[in-house]
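Researcher: Please predict.
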Amino acid sequence: MIKRLTLLCLGMAMMIGSMAQNNNALYGNKDKAAEGIYKRILNNGKEVTFTADDVQFWCGTGSNQAVIVVGWDDATDPQAIGWGVRWNGPVVAIDLIDSIATYDSRFSYQFGGGLISNVEFSDNGETLTSEYNWWCYYINGDWASGYGAQDVEDGDYLELSGDCSWEFTTATPAVDPNAVIDTTPTIPDATIAHADILHWVGMGENEVVIAVNWNAPDTCLAWGVRFGADTITLKDAMDSIMCKDYRFKYVPGDWGIDEIIFNDYQGTHYSLTDVENFNYWWCNYNGAAADYAYDEQQLVNGDQVKWGDPTCGIVIDTMWGYPSEIVWTKEVSAVPALVSGPFCGAAETEGSTAIHYSDTLFKGWASGCELNLGRTDIADPDAAIVSYGSANDAIGAVVEGNLAVVSLGDGGSATLTFDYPITNGEGYDFAVFENSFNDTFLELAFVEVSTDGEHFVRFPSTSLTSSCHGVGGSGGINPTYIDGLAGKYRTGYGTPFDLEQLRDSANIDIDSIMFVRIVDVVGSIDAEFATYDSWGNMVVDPYPTGSYSSGFDLDGVGVINWKYTEPNIEPEGIDNVVAQQISLYPNPAQAEVTCTVSMDGEHVMNIFDMTGRQLMHTTFQGTHTTINVAALSSGIYMVRIDGQAHRLVIKK
């Protein structure tokens, strides 16, 4: 066992040895042994050869290792025994000597006053001791500092002598008392060169790499972090990645990290597999167990950190019933650099789902609207309710450059009704319009639908805009980071929705939707007021805007598929109908509408409501006529001219 005694006095010779031992740092540098081979010529001219390959008894665990040879100088029978010591983190010489005594009960020593004495090795009834008991030591062939002050590094070679001389040239490897030779290989942690990293975050001349292992599937991905200060905490490095890369997310736990997730929102989703007794994350720092918690671990230029759980690595040692040392050998792959988000881009870009208000896909528009308006700033209890627009501005067709919208305010909503039910047809079934003036100032809203007006189901949504700092009241949003939210596109272009997405939802009939509710997103990153997407991400949009027109500006909801059969009405007054080009202008109209046809002659015009009821009948000569529609209320009508049907929107 270890004997630590306070020595009050020592012989003069030991004092001299101490002075020499504590001042030997002046004796040159510590050259490392090449490729793990320890071979040194001592100051007294003796040569001792003992390599790491000769070690049969390794004490301790870790990725660093050193060889220690202890020599007992006896005039008739000098002997030396060699051990290997493994460890992680910073150590001094006395720590390694202590490790030998801990793992090999045959070895003991006393330590006090900065010196060691009474170093003994007892085996099979025989004890090796030193007659002079003046214990000095070398590191890599040079005199070393005091045992408690001498730093030891990976690959070092220590030699202890009982009388500060060296009377032998060979060492015998110590063998485990239980006759079990340690055959644990030195397994290196897989690494990646900084030059191979594809996705860097942060700025500065210093660089560290953060890699994560997942066991299902077996993969390891790496990011790079740049910083300007001398050090950065592991937590700050991980936060930098999470703020700049929507694919990376970690979840803090009570004592460490509960989860690290990679999700590219295109079908690839990695997370910790819940394996019994191993549902936690472990951290390696430069190939060894980290010394501190992730929020305290300091990183410097060139460091590499590896995260994983025991099931995706090799457990080297186990303490207290769980792995205490793990090595990950999976090849490290660089995460691809981000070019854009995973979703389609702005209106009129390749792959965009935006639909222009004039598209012939639209069969009708909302005919009723009920508002529940929010304040100009949800965080200010004294803020006024928004006042821009009215319910009438949300019904009927959208027109070019329309400013006739209704602002919903922070968290406000509008519930739209329709003359006929929206049904789940082919492709998209309806679209929501907002009047953003460009492709990035996007005010967003959730979209919900209902059959009975009581039970509403929300469309799944995704927002990948970083919530680290928000975007402010005038900030921009990348539309490729947005999916399933109204307001993705600029004015004149609707965000489409497909009822098929809600097929498995309860309490609605996707073939008979009578209500569409638009709910303003509160873009605040304050958890008290924030709103969240289907993944649990904060939905960020411009906040605070703080004006009477805050929040989502609803322009209209256009129906693509609805339960309506056009009435079969025969043309009147024309025996032979010839197909011709017909236009109605303006459309939408308020008081008057002009009808233009391509052929001269007598023409018959009828106007019907959406139930097929005839509201107006007239005839005209020539190629055009203007009719008064002021008596018609806002809504959608069918105009038949010479038997050809066209939609007319009245919006007042």
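Model: The CA atoms of residues 369 and 416 lie 5 Å apart.
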